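User: Could you go from structure to sequence for me? I need the amino acid at each position, not a summary. Structure tokens:
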């Protein structure tokens, strides 16, 4: 299933937005966005450059693995937290976050190439 087959919703207010923010930021303070399935919960608007690309990779991960992704994500985070004793390192070293960072950079780089081509 292609991620573009379904819309991605950005949520910027509401009870669910507050709950998701409170829980996720308790584990990783300072997060500006959290993606659950196809919803991106944004805690700063507009999002900083590259964040939407990063969150779109998480949507793709969800499309690829469905709900198993959440189990694997949490398992990786907890294992990393125990191993490193650091929530920030556990977050940064989580394979899902590593993939999202790498692919977001690729998307951003590709976007820059398109932008340059449009000007010529
Ligand atoms: Zn992420």
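Assistant: Here is the amino acid at each position, in order:
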């Amino acid at each position: 299933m292609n991620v573009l087959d379904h819309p991605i919703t950005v949520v910027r207010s509401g009870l669910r937005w507050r709950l998701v923010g409170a829980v996720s930021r308790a584990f990783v303070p300072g997060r500006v966005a959290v993606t659950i399935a196809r919803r991106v919960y944004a805690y700063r608007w507009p999002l900083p450059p590259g964040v939407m690309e990063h969150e779109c990779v998480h949507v793709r991960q969800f499309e690829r693995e469905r709900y198993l992704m959440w189990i694997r994500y949490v398992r990786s985070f907890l294992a990393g937290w125990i191993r490193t004793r650091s929530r920030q390192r556990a977050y940064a070293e989580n394979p899902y976050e590593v993939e999202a960072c790498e692919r977001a950079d690729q998307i951003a780089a590709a976007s820059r190439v398109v932008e340059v081509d449009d000007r010529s």
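One structural detail worth keeping in mind: The mean pLDDT is 89.
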